[in-house]
Amino acid sequence: ETGMFTYDPGFTATASCKSAITYIDGDQGVLLYRGYPIEQLAEHSNFLEVAYLLMHGELPTPTEFKAFEDEITHHTMVHESANSVIKGFMHDGHPMAMLISMLGALSGIYHNDLDLDDPEQRRLAAIRLIAKVPTIAAASYRHSIGFPKSYPRNDLDYASRFLTMLREVPSEEFELNPVAAKALDLLLILHADHEQNASTSTVRLVGSTGANPYASVASGVAALWGPAHGGANEAVLKMLKEIGKPENVASAVEKAKNKDSGFRLMGFGHRVYKNYDPRAALVRKMTHDVLAQLNVNDPLLEVAMRLEEAALKDEYFVQRKLYPNVDFYSGLIYKALGIPVEMFTVMFAIGRTPGWVAHWLEQQLDPESKIGRPRQVYTGAVSRDYVPVDKR
Ligand code: SDX
């Protein structure tokens, strides 16, 4: 212990940056995007309006929103040359791998628009990322089922456009259920930003070196992929399927309390929320509404509800303040919308892209922003002399 630095494995003790974008109070279960409570945005706003708010700091006037929406719509296509990247993947490659690679490829396509000292080029990169991530995501999934990419229908809203691109039938034949589009739009709002989580901190750390926004966001997607972070929504579904029936819930809870089992209740716990994740409360309610409106009777919902009920009553979880987080129920809604489980974390990435680009833009504008350089508490050997190989 050099005494110079405090060791904190989760970086929660030291503020890595200043930001005006999102505020979280983990003890009170409060989440504000630019000062607006997530509950009010969930009830009154839409995903693109929230994306505008995160980027610009204020809610848009009708004229500002129309211009923003038109610009996003204008940039939904992905250059054909980038599509060969997806074709280079085995069909069953994970769509998150394709998303990471495609975002890197965008750096190569827009290399003439990467003068980061030009505010207009920075803003355009942010627009392109928000507009193109869903198109790339849909193309990745369609590649995995051996389908050609689909083209974005720009007569649709953001969520409807994505669901239509994902479909396995020609988009002009696909009848979109408005309940599905509204549910997806709300889930995207709830995932749009979350302060300095692992992936956003990664975007800021990479961005702090002067790397371009496509590479910075690609690094955020890579960080999000882990099951401890955005990969949790996919892991929750796998866990619920493994538990299978409500009668198996009690043994699953017992197993999760035994650290040697290596089994955790995925979708439970949080680095910051030591109270109920406000997003989880909204997703939980939404799950019941959406499955009822879509007439979906998913037996895993009963397993999830019994698991939550059992854990919230169990001393181990209560003592450790382990509550369901945003990932616990979201997968059940994605499943009801017909989105395959391997796309769940990609859905999280689509939602989080406005947050990532808002943080990247904020950092570019911060005159005090310096290159990120975390330090360590050194626990290795003290200084010693080299030993020739014949003396070892
Ligand atoms: C997201 O940071 C963000 O904001 C992230 C996010 C966002 O919007 O960007 O909110 C999205 O990533 C949500 C989290 C999704 N991950 C999961 O659901 C995976 C399952 N949860 C965990 O692995 C865990 O809870 C973490 C990763 C979320 C937090 O892990 P920590 O930091 O180890 O949790 P902790 O320090 O609060 O743990 C305290 C105790 C420990 O036991 P003790 O050593 O005190 O005996 O609780 C235990 C942990 O072992 N524990 C769990 C558990 N989570 C923590 N035990 C069983 N099941 C769990 N899920």
Automatic annotation (TrEMBL):
Q: In which pathway does it act?
A: Carbohydrate metabolism; tricarboxylic acid cycle; isocitrate from oxaloacetate: step 1/2
Listed under catalytic activity are: oxaloacetate + acetyl-CoA + H2O = citrate + CoA + H(+)
Q: CDD domains this protein is in?
A: EcCS_like
Could you list the residue ranges that cross the membrane?
A: none
SUPFAM superfamilies on file:
Citrate synthase
| Entry keyword annotation includes Transferase | yes
**Keyword Repeat on this protein?**
no
One Pfam family per UniProt: Citrate_synt
Q: List UniProt keywords, sorted A-Z.
A: Acyltransferase, Transferase, Tricarboxylic acid cycle
Q: Which PROSITE patterns match?
A: CITRATE_SYNTHASE
- A GO term, aspect molecular function: citrate synthase activity
NCBIfam families listed in its UniProt record: cit_synth_I, PRK05614.1
Q: Which family does it belong to?
A: Belongs to the citrate synthase family.
> What is this protein called in UniProt?
Citrate synthase
Provide the species name: Aquilutibacter rugosus
